[in-house]
Amino acid sequence: MLESYGEIIFLLHFMLVYMASVNYDCPMACECDIDDETVNLSCRRTIPDTLPLNTRVVSITDIEYEYLQHSDFNNARWENVTKLYLRGGSVNSLFSYTFLNFRNLKHLQISFPDLYIISMNAFSQLTQLRTLDMSGNFHLSFDVVADALTVTEFTNNLDELNLQSLARFLTPGELNETFFLQLQRFNIKRLDLSQSNFRKIDPIALSLLGSSLEELRMIDVDLSSFVFYFYRSYAPHMFPNLQLFDISFARMKWFVLSLSIRDSVGVYDCFFPLFQARNLRMNNIFSETVTQVNITYKSLNCNRDVRGRIELKNNKIRFLNINVDPKMPMYREVDFSNNGLEYLSLNVMSHFTVMNWISLTQNNLGAMEKYIEFVDLFAHNLDLEYIDLSFNNLIRLPRDFFLFNSKLKTIIISNNLLTSQLFRIEHLNKLEYFDISNNNILFLDSSFLRTFDIMNLEMESNQSNIRQFSINLTGNTFKCECDTKGFIQWIITTRVTLVHRESYICEMQKNVVKINDNSPKDIEQICERTKLILMATLISLFSAGILVIIGIILICSYRRCLNLRHIKFLIEKYRKEDPPNKHLVFLSFCNSDRDFVYRYIIDELKDTLSERLDASKDDIVCIGDINFEPGRYILDEIIRCTESCCVVLLVVSEAFCKSHYCDFEALCAELEKKPIILMFLEEVDPKCMSKIMYKHFQKYTRVKWTRNGDEFELVPSWAKVCDSICAFAGANARFANKASIVEQTPLATI
Ligand SMILES: *[C@@H]1O[C@H](CO)[C@@H](O)[C@H](O)[C@H]1NC(C)=O
Ligand SMILES: *[C@@H]1O[C@H](CO)[C@@H](O)[C@H](O)[C@H]1NC(C)=O
Ligand SMILES: *[C@@H]1O[C@H](CO)[C@@H](O)[C@H](O)[C@H]1NC(C)=O
Ligand SMILES: *[C@@H]1O[C@H](CO)[C@@H](O)[C@H](O)[C@H]1NC(C)=O
Ligand SMILES: *[C@@H]1O[C@H](CO)[C@@H](O)[C@H](O)[C@H]1NC(C)=O
Ligand SMILES: *[C@@H]1O[C@H](CO)[C@@H](O)[C@H](O)[C@H]1NC(C)=O
């Protein structure tokens, strides 16, 4: 029995405790939200005097009291609360000992837009406090906060003092020695002065917090005087533990002033102790476009261990140069994104020797491609593991762009204008993510695909590895054609993870289609068709070619055959002593060439022809000197001679061209429709030739005398020339009655 009584008592006790915490009577005029150890109260004209048991976190909003005092929290129930948030409402004063009962309070937030009075002892007895958040007290001055803290006895140091948006509606105060001396003894680790309203901040005074300060945020504040002061403050290691210095959105007149003089900024490391923070954030400082920023770190033995991260985002810097003297390892992580950077000096990158992470997204580094040194931009960053170059208007990266970055795990070059000609990746055997989405890639060549497959295989076969290898190719319109079939096949079959593969598209016969399992087959069909068409075209071309060749051969042989028949016919005629004309050739030459003609031409011509025709030499060749009848009119004789011969052979020289008789002889031959053969003794200016001669000169091949030392030589040979003469004569004779259809035969080319 006793045991069951004990049980009942225990149960009752448990139920009571449970009821007390669950069935907490939310005070009138309050809205309550209770969850585990947290109580959110939205009260107006009251502050409850009871709390659920074991409440640790209390938030009270919209208190419509003018002031808070000790009696408002005069209850033992508050003793176990560790976090107290007081926000909004109309409280303007905190009286002495208000928080006396919060013996275990670690985190206190007071955020009253109207608060402007804090009594000296308001915070006394808050011995456990680690975080004091006074943000959003727009009417509270820095002096009031500092004074209130003066008499406070915190057992521990303050981890965080948040003074965001303080004194926004007041005339700006001055953060001088008086202020920082009051804070000094709390060994504050994190100080936030963002968006607060102060006119001046004395950096030397600020350095009173230096030994403990780990994070300093001064986002969106007016730092014009601050930077000016800093020139005077030389004291290395003033902030030896500073992990973060954030002046994003800060308004710095000094910067702006220097910028107007050729847009140059100098930051001197040791003179600027705050800039030695492991992590430096200077985003959105420059609202105007900055064409050139030179940052110079003058190291005066103040380089600490390797730093964390530098951020220079959204600063509209077009040209960035950082000089460090002497060189020292700089930040591990670098974020220069969204600046529209057109030039990043090699110098900058060569200082970041320990850098493993860089984001350069949303710049314009495509403008740097034209410089030869572009290829070496990351040649000094041997530890680089992550790089983001998206949105940079890059058209073509050099083949050796990542030659020295064999530790790269992530490459993001999405949203550029890159084509299929990419850089080398075979050596990047640590690669895990490769993003070339939204570019102009038509295909990846087989060496790329092989490398990807190998990398993937290595990663898959490593049991202890949990990482995955993936590639992002979305947003490119590939080419689905015969020569890219291998690539499309790879997309379908590879074991590499392709991000959003289902969305990949390609252009197939001018249509954009989704790539699916059937794509390789479709391409195959198109290829087969194309191949067939190509084959057919080739075959028809080939056959046409053969036909043409056969035709040419036939024509040529027919001609030769014809010539031979003409010659044979002529020989036959001569054998029957029935020559077609009295003379075979009328040799027309000019008087001044007489010597040459007698010496080199007449005999040879007669001999060769008579030998060919097996006829007597007499009368074969008609020569004016011999065959013109003396005493007759010379033009008549020329006509007679032309009529009585089969072929006219004109011996052409400069003198021949100028002679009227010679001209007439050519004219006669033309009128009589006699075949004409031109035999050149020398080069003759075509301009001085008669019309008929010029016509022949242009249309037909000719015979030429060339000089070989003292010897003269006929090209082509006499035999050929005589064959031609015989062929012409034979043809002329055979078709004597028909209109002349004599075709001239090629003799020689000049
Ligand atoms: C109390 O308010 C905070 C924000 O002010 C909220 O995050 C939390 O969830 C609330 N708790 C309950 C129990 O409603
Ligand atoms: C505070 O916590 C202690 C120890 O857990 C406990 O004994 C005491 O009852 C609690 N006080 C209140 C008011 O909840
Ligand atoms: C600091 O500024 C306050 C006003 O904000 C002024 O009263 C005080 O005298 C100044 N202290 C020093 C040391 O300049
Ligand atoms: C910035 O540095 C570059 C390279 O060292 C130099 O050519 C340029 O004149 C400098 N600009 C200014 C304004 O000092
Ligand atoms: C792949 O690229 C697209 C387009 O750039 C992007 O929206 C998407 O987030 C990327 N996917 C992954 C997993 O990174
Ligand atoms: C396997 O993966 C683990 C973890 O990523 C890595 O440390 C190890 O070097 C890999 N082993 C081989 C043989 O690549």
What does this structure look like?
With about 750 residues, this protein is an alpha/beta fold. It has 17 helices and 36 strands. The strands form six sheets. It has a 19-stranded mixed sheet, with no helix packed on it. Helix 2 (about 140-150) runs parallel beside helix 3, helix 11 (about 595-615) packs across helix 17 and helix 13 runs parallel beside helix 15. The structure holds 2-acetamido-2-deoxy-beta-D-glucopyranose (6 copies). One 2-acetamido-2-deoxy-beta-D-glucopyranose binds near residues 435, 472, 474, 475 and 499. Pfam families: LRR_8, TIR_2.
**What is the global morphology?**
rod-shaped
Helical proportion, percent range: 25-40%
Mean pLDDT: 82
Summed up, the helix count is 17
Spans where pLDDT lies below 50 across 5 or more residues: 10-21, 228-234, 256-271, 737-750
Q: From the helix content, strand content and strand pairing, which structural class follows?
A: alpha/beta
CATH homologous superfamily identity of the domain at 560-734: Toll/interleukin-1 receptor homology (TIR) domain
N-to-C CA distance? 141 Å
Brief overview, please?
This protein is α/β, with parallel strands linked by helices and about 750 residues long. The chain contains 17 helices and 36 strands.
List keywords for this structure.
disordered C terminus; Leucine-rich repeat, LRR (right-handed beta-alpha superhelix); TIR domain-containing protein; alpha/beta; binds 2-acetamido-2-deoxy-beta-D-glucopyranose; single chain; Rossmann fold; TIR_dom
Give the arrangement of secondary structure elements.
Elements: H1 2-22, E1 30-35, E2 38-43, E3 57-63, E4 67-68, E5 83-89, E6 93-94, E7 107-111, E8 117-118, E9 131-133, H2 142-150, E10 160-162, E11 173-175, H3 177-184, E12 190-192, E13 198-201, H4 203-206, E14 215-217, H5 224-230, E15 244-246, H6 253-260, E16 279-281, E17 293-298, E18 307-311, E19 319-325, E20 331-335, E21 343-344, H7 346-351, E22 357-359, E23 386-388, E24 410-412, E25 433-435, H8 446-461, E26 470-472, E27 477-479, H9 485-493, E28 497-499, E29 505-508, E30 511-514, H10 519-575, E31 583-588, H11 594-613, E32 621-623, H12 624-627, H13 634-643, E33 645-652, H14 654-658, H15 660-671, E34 676-680, H16 691-699, E35 703-708, E36 711-715, H17 718-734
Parallel strand pairs: 2-3, 3-5, 4-6, 5-7, 6-8, 7-9, 9-10, 10-12, 11-13, 12-14, 14-15, 15-16, 16-18, 17-19, 18-20, 19-21, 20-22, 22-23, 23-24, 24-25, 25-26, 26-28, 27-29, 31-32, 31-33, 33-34, 34-35
Antiparallel strand pairs: 1-2, 29-30, 35-36
Helix pairs in contact: 2-3, 9-10, 10-17, 11-17, 13-15
Bound molecules: 2-acetamido-2-deoxy-beta-D-glucopyranose (6 copies).
